[in-house]
Every structure is written in C-alpha cells, then in structure tokens.
Specification:
This protein has 191 residues and is of the alpha+beta class. The protein has helices at 25-32, 88-91, 121-132, 147-168, 172-181, and strands at 2-4, 13-18, 37-46, 49-63, 70-85, 110-114, 118-120. The chain binds zinc ion.
C-alpha cells in the first residue's frame, strides 16, 4: 500500500483500512494472518515533512509467556510520527521506523522515512503493530489467568522430581560414583 505524498492537500487527508477494504492485508499477513484489523490515520504536510497520526486495532496469535497457552491477544495503539524524506544510502543504517533512540519521549512522535514522495503505509503499519507487541504476552486481562493451575502443576512436578532423586540413591550408578570418590585421584590431602 503506497501513498503518493505529493497529492496530500495542506489540510491533510484521512485513511481508513480494514481487512474488508483489504489494502494492508498482504503487508500484515505474516503478523496477523487473516484476522480483522482497523487502521485509521491522517497524513498532513508539516513544512517539508509529513505528520502521521492514527490508531490501529487488531488481534494477534501469541503464546502466553507464563502458562504456554495459545491466545488471541487484542492489540491497539495510537501512533503519531513524523515522516521525513530519506536518502537511499542513509537508509541502510536505519530501521523503517526510524531512530529508536528518540524513544525516551515515550508517547511523543518518532521519525519514519519515505522516499521520492512515496510513503509505504503497509511497511509502516506493519512496524507499528510489531513494536506494539508485548515482550511477555499474557493470557489474562491483568496477568496469566492459568497461573494458579500452572504453579500447582509445577509444584507437583517438582515433588515428583524430589521423590525420584531420593529413590535414585539406591541405584547401582550411585554406588559406582561413591567408589570413584574414594579413589586415589579423589585423595587431595597429599598435594
Ligand atoms: Zn497464561
């Protein structure tokens, strides 16, 4: 989905994309497959740059970082960035979403790039959604909703392991190890 920025009027132009309208389906397929999404934004000239302001909402397949359950994580975020023209050779050292070191502004605008009046909205929205993913997705609203079950299972498992370690003391391999310990190499008192 490419937008010709030279056609944007001074008062700006709004865009509204969804799975039904289809413009971003291909660009987002590797992130959300064929799940619904809603992306709206306004592009507005700002001197010799452009401002992009908008919002996306979708959901994404994830695995809960606590209990390992598959989940459909609802994801939504406002975005507000400045688009500046990029030189091709300069671009190599920059991500699509620009300089991440300006992240200290938290909710403030970041810089993204376009080339030759063409803004690749598909790549941009892909990056915005990818960056909005939590590092540790969780299956519940506040925290993992299976955590109590998982901790119970974990405790049971640990008890099993403890039990098997205790009974292993009678295993022949342990007596072999015991013998090795009292061998000449194990006697360090003479060194
Ligand atoms: Zn969970």
């Amino acid at each position: 989905m490419k937008i010709n920025l030279s056609e944007i009027p001074a008062e700006g132009r709004s865009y509204d994309f969804s799975h039904e309208t289809g413009e971003l389906n291909e660009a987002l397929a590797d992130l959300i497959q064929d799940r619904p999404y809603d992306v709206t934004f306004t592009l507005k000239p700002l001197g010799n740059a452009y401002e992009i302001k908008g919002h996306f909402a979708t959901r994404k397949p994830e695995i809960c970082s606590r209990c390992g359950w598959d989940l459909e994580l609802p994801l939504q975020r406002n975005f507000n960035d400045i688009l500046i023209e990029d030189e091709p050779e300069y671009r190599k050292s920059h991500s699509v979403h620009g300089n991440q070191s300006v992240d200290f502004l938290a909710q403030g605008p970041e810089v993204a790039y376009y080339q030759g009046d063409v803004f690749d909205a598909g790549t941009y929205v892909h990056e915005v959604i990818a960056l909005a993913e939590p590092f540790y997705p969780s299956c519940g609203v506040e925290d993992c909703e299976h955590l109590a079950d998982v901790e119970k299972k974990r405790a049971e498992l640990e008890a099993e392991i403890q039990k098997s370690v205790v009974t292993e003391k009678g295993h022949p391999a342990f007596s072999v190890l015991e013998k090795l310990k009292v061998g000449p190499a194990g006697d360090e008192s003479e060194h």
